[in-house]
Amino acid sequence: MDVKMRFEQAIRDRLEQLGMKPFAAEQAYNLPPDTLRNILNPRNKNGAGPKLAKISEVCEALGIEISFGPPRSVEPTTELDGERFATIARYEASAAAGHGVVNLDAPPKDHLAVPRDWLIETGIRPDRCILITARGDSMAPAISNGDLVMIDRHRTEITSGKLYVYNAPEDGTRVKRLELLPGTAIIARSDNPDQKRYPPEYHTGPAMNAISQNILGEVVWSGHLWR
After folding, report:
1. Are residues 161 and 110 in contact, defined by beta-carbon separation less than 8 angstroms?
2. Which residues contact 189 (CB under 8 A, 6 or more apart)?
3. Which of 18, 131, 149, 180 is paired with 119 by a 20 to 30 Å CA distance?
4. Residue-wise pLDDT tens for the chain (227 aa)?
């Protein structure tokens, strides 16, 4: 099986895992229209195939591993009662609703085992993720004080409306919902409905770069702590 056929088969296998048709996956993962359908179109069987940039874009969106050279190590896994779990590092660090600091230079405190099939279905790559603790209540009710927050450290490009953990020069490490106004401003929003305590924060000029260049990752999951 040549490289082009293997790539196409990897896409089909991934779509089957996700339970999605190509059109639905293009919409769900923000791929340009017809990206997957063009690759999988039988009429393109004898074509040259997509360029490396397109292959990389598709693999990134769908969570398909792409590598060249010797085999690379994969995320640690364990098995319990026949079910495979991926283990994700949890760091003794926090991201704050208000102020805080996170230091990932130290070794992880421990690991959390998460069902690998569930991660695959949700498009989460465990080898890219870490867990930290949220502090404060500015993101409540979505994220409360003490909740575990999983961040994908490869997702550092801002998509408006999504949650990100980032290092702010004066405020330490924060978790906020970011809205990007290209060339104009980055708005850091809190989910807490008390907008008097947590008003939107508008960052312009150099302050935009201070955020966009210091994003640790996108929040892809959080575990709520019930008290």
Report:
1. no
2. 176, 177, 178, 179, 200, 201
3. 180
4. 477 888 888 898 888 877 889 998 888 888 899 999 989 987 766 666 788 888 888 887 887 777 655 444 445 667 766 778 989 999 877 776 445 556 677 788 899 999 988 887 888 888 889 999 888 889 999 999 989 999 999 899 999 999 999 988 777 889 999 999 998 999 999 999 999 999 999 999 999 999 999 999 999 999 987 87
Contact 179, 117 (CB under 8 A): no
Contact 64, 10 (CB under 8 A): yes
Task: Give SS3 for 13.
Answer: helix
Together in a domain, 41 and 124:
no
As for how many domains the chain has, the answer is 2
Residue type for 200, please?
Answer: P
Residues 88 and 178 in one domain: yes
